[in-house]
Specification:
alpha+beta; Transferase(Phosphotransferase), domain 1; Phosphorylase Kinase, domain 1; single chain
Length: 893
């Protein structure tokens, strides 16, 4: 039954056919109510004609529609029109996995990238009690940016007769006409033994199907074949597939092990939980991809890292740390380059999250390679945690609350850091932190063997590279930006081995895309320029310089005495955290050949949710959306998108459905946090094109933009009053934290402080009538939502067990915010002399990686930007990284 273009099925208008299969015909259609395109599957007449099966189908389809996972195609609607039953689903773009597998065996990285997402989607469905039952390459779509979508969840089960009816899926498949043999084998070839035998099955049946798919991706041939469907079923039940190594001699043993476990004939021998399978694949993917090393290492070879994966996090960590400890728990030279590198990942301390900084560092390996200092956050408050690489436990360091940019003394006895506008040091043998001098935290510190500490400052009159004795005292300026050398800011000082010379980065005037690597001296004003670089550098004994280029971490031989390079740069890591503007990069190295690095940004998606948390519409695809803001009328969205190669962002605008996206800024600077004017004609945003971030404005249709507020600190626009007379903004103060200010947009335009104290106040929003400010603060010890009068008085705490990101409904009758556990809450607001705010009520939960959100004017929908992977990428440790330099490796395309 072919449907011509223009046919209406309820609210859906058929546009074009997409394909056909055993479960019916599929069409591209338009939802005339929401103005979006969907996929419509028209069900076979035999299913539509059976009232009992159709009823069960609708019940199960509605259960599948509640899965809400980025790797599962969303079921929007089930209905019927003119005796035609249909199901409306999210329209998945890209190619089917079958098409991608057509050329033959796939690269291991791609196998793991796709396989992990399939497993994660299956795990979510299995947790909800839903089994796919027909997982095959034709039912997996992969978008151009690598996002995987599983199709037809639960439909195979729904198409089956009820228990006791005479037909089963395998029999029906075998009895199909021979002209459909390709379809038959394509379906039958991925069944589990229990499904092929007509026995009861559970979620582990899907694991077998996934194992069959992974096998074919790895070898280029199917795991189970036969001259007929019956022979294929017999092979599934009785035979094992040929060993993967026979077709893929370089196969990674952990991947082989995971596939073989999925293909176990007995369900009891497979994974007890599909979440464990997903975790093992993700571990292997991250270990292989994270260090930019070939994943096809069956046996350690010279320069090939041993990836610790295909096991639970705890087991992997213990094994990896045990192996690493055999190399690093000692003093002396680094291991020989012939030893195989070892890499493993560390998750954050319990109930915390790692986070990368724009002008700060968050990880530091000790010079002796024994300990790792990390900055992790809990309830919006940062602290430093210490972990020995011979242990599996973190130790919190008291007195480091609010700290950033840890660095080590050369003997690994002391840890330096920045907090509360001070440079501090902590004796790890015991005692509280000691203040060394006044200092901000722009960049990080460097500690010489002679007891000098270098750091960078941006405060006018103090800006440049400063030096202080580790025993404490006043710091002195060693170097200041020189306009004659076109220097705008100086960053990232790092001592060379002699303790007198040091590297630093000079950002050039007028172009934030150019950073010069320079060498200065404590003993003279002599300056050497080595050339442009993309990031800060670290010197790694006995003679390499580590730095970033095009998002990849490279090492190049460097003679510290002659201060000159030799040879070509070699790739160590193909993708890690980078922030181009101030030339930051997330890595640290020890003298023992240990490299620690932070993974790069993770992809995001924008989604419309209703008040129950149900996904009601997708919004386009952008790799890293940091911030979203709806226009006053709710018909447009301004958002900032980060470039994963640089860490910097640009401002975009699209309509509320994500159509016609327009990039408004393209400066090399970091430009984000757009805020609409009340009439929707202007955007206010933050930019660092002239130095530390300031507030700019431009037309909502695009334009050059011009400064609105330029001050020495970092200012972020937050809200514009409904009458357009005032701008609410936050300023990052080195001594008082993030404060709330208001700027009159006419008259003397003198900023007025609203809340200025030692606490962190963030994301303030003016009520629609302009009399109240909602914000969140850590003054109670954790982040909570407050409402205060416009002048900062009459403060009332709204949340009770944590809260961030308050948002007013456009008529002021509700206040929304987020809380721990992915909860979205709403509190009713009654107007009056003071706002009467009722107890917050939970609307829904969206656990995981929500980055930003905004609320439609009527409060009925939420536009959410969220990560499609876990919110806190792990830190990767690579032991004996110099061995990688013996390989001939190039940057991945």
């Amino acid at each position: 039954m072919a449907l011509p273009a223009g046919t209406r099925l309820g609210p859906y208008q058929i546009l074009a056919p997409l394909g056909a299969g055993g479960m019916g015909e599929v069409y591209r259609a338009r939802d005339t109510r929401l103005g979006r395109e969907v996929a419509i599957k028209v069900l076979p007449r035999e299913l539509s004609a059976d009232a009992d099966r159709l009823r069960r189908f609708e019940q199960e389809a509605r259960a599948a529609s509640a899965l809400n996972h980025p790797n599962i195609v969303t079921v929007h609607d089930v209905g019927s029109a003119d005796s035609v039953s249909y199901i409306a689903m999210e329209l998945a773009h890209g190619k089917s996995l079958r098409e991608l597998m057509a050329p033959g065996a796939m690269a291991v990285r791609r196998i793991l990238a796709i396989g992990t997402q399939i497993a994660e989607g299956l795990a979510r469905a299995h947790a909800g009690g839903i089994v796919h039952r027909d997982l095959k390459p034709e039912n997996v779509m992969v978008s151009d940016d690598g996002l995987v979508k599983i199709l037809d969840f639960g439909l195979a089960k729904l198409a089956l007769p009820a228990p006791g009816e005479p037909t089963s899926a395998p029999t029906a498949a075998m009895d199909a006409p021979q002209t459909q043999s390709g379809v038959i084998l394509g379906t039958v070839g991925y069944m589990s033994p229990e499904q092929a035998a007509g026995r009861d099955l559970d979620h582990r049946s899907d694991q077998f199907s996934l194992g069959s798919i992974l096998y074919e991706m790895a070898t280029g041939r199917r795991a189970f074949t036969g001259d007929s469907a019956a022979q294929t079923l017999a092979a599934i039940i009785e035979k094992d597939p040929p060993a993967i190594e026979t077709a893929r001699p370089d196969a990674s043993p952990p991947l082989v092990w995971a596939i073989e476990r999925c293909l176990a004939k007995s369900p009891a021998e497979r994974y007890e939980s599909t979440r464990d399978l997903a975790r093992d694949l993700a571990n292997l993917r991250d270990r292989i991809s994270g260090a930019g090393v070939s994943a096809a290492a069956a046996r350690p070879r010279r320069g090939a890292p041993v990836a610790i994966a295909a096991m639970g996090w705890a087991a992997a960590g213990v094994l990896a740390i045990g192996l690493a400890a055999s190399l690093i728990v000692r003093r002396g030279p680094a291991p020989p380059a012939s030893a195989a590198p070892i890499q493993f990942s560390l998750q954050p301390p319990e109930a915390t999250a790692f986070g990368s900084g724009e002008i700060s560092t968050r990880t530091a390996i000790s010079p002796d390679g024994r300990s790792l200092a990390v900055v992790a956050s809990s309830h919006g408050r940062r602290s430093i945690f210490l972990r020995s690489l011979g242990s599996i436990a973190y130790r919190p360091l008291p007195g480091t609350e609010g700290a950033d940019s840890p660095f080590w003394s050369p003997d690994s006895r002391f840890l330096g850091f920045f907090a509360d506008g001070k440079l501090k040091k902590l004796d790890l043998a015991g005692g509280p932190p000691q203040t060394v001098c006044d200092a901000s935290f722009e960049g990080t510190g460097s500690w010489s063997p002679q007891g000098d500490i270098l750091f960078a400052e941006l405060v006018p009159g103090r800006d440049g590279i400063r030096c202080v004795r580790a025993d404490g005292g006043e710091s002195r300026r060693v170097l200041a930006p020189d306009a004659g050398r076109r220097e705008r800011q100086l960053f990232w000082p790092r001592f060379l081995p002699d303790g007198r010379h040091f590297f630093y980065i000079a950002l050039e005037l007028g172009d934030t895309s150019i950073s010069q690597l320079c060498i200065g001296s404590l003993d003279s004003g002599e300056i050497e320029r080595l050339g442009p670089v993309d990031s800060r550098v670290e010197y790694a004994p006995p003679g390499h310089l580590l730095f970033v280029r095009d998002g990849a971490l490279l090492a190049r031989s460097f003679d510290a005495k002659r201060r000159s390079f030799a040879g070509e740069a070699r790739v160590l890591v193909e993708k890690l955290y980078t922030f181009w503007g101030p030339a930051n990069a997330g890595f640290s190295t020890s003298g023992d050949g240990i490299l620690v690095y932070e993974e790069g940004t993770v992809p995001t998606r924008l989604t419309w949710l209703d008040r129950s948390g149900r996904e009601v519409a997708a919004f386009g695809s952008f790799e890293q959306v940091e911030y979203v803001r709806l226009s006053p009328g709710g018909d447009r969205v301004a958002f900032s998108v980060a470039d994963p190669r640089t860490g910097t962002a640009d401002v975009w605008v699209a309509d509320a459905a994500g159509n016609a996206p327009t990039r408004l800024t393209s400066d090399p600077a970091d430009e984000k946090y757009p805020v609409w004017s009340p009439d929707g004609r202007l955007l206010v945003f933050r930019s660092d094109r002239r130095g530390p971030p300031d507030v700019y404005t431009m037309a909502a249709g695009g334009g050059a933009g011009k400064p609105l507020l330029e001050l020495p600190g970092v200012e972020t626009p937050e809200d514009v009053s409904s009458d357009g007379a005032s701008l609410l903004y936050t300023e990052a103060d080195r001594t008082t934290g993030d404060d709330i200010w208001i700027l009159p947009l006419s008259g003397d335009r003198k900023p007025v402080p609203i809340l200025r104290n030692r606490f962190e106040e963030n994301e303030p929003r003016l009520s629609p009538d302009g009399r109240w400010i909602a914000y969140f603060s850590d003054e109670s010890g954790s982040s909570e939502v407050y409402v205060a009068a416009r002048d900062g008085s009459s403060k009332t705490r709204i949340s009770r067990d944590g809260g961030v990101s308050p948002r007013w409904r456009r008529d002021g009758r509700e206040l929304f915010f987020r809380a721990p556990g992915g909860r979205f809450l709403a509190a009713a607001v009654r107007e009056g002399a003071t706002p009467a705010i009722g107890p917050p009520a939970e609307l829904f939960r969206r656990p995981g990686g929500v980055i930003s959100y905004d609320v439609a004017p009527d409060g009925q929908r939420f536009l959410v930007s969220e990560r499609v992977k876990p919110p806190s990428p792990p830190i990767t440790v690579l032991v004996n990284w110099p061995a990688l330099l013996s390989e001939k490796r190039e940057l991945a395309p």
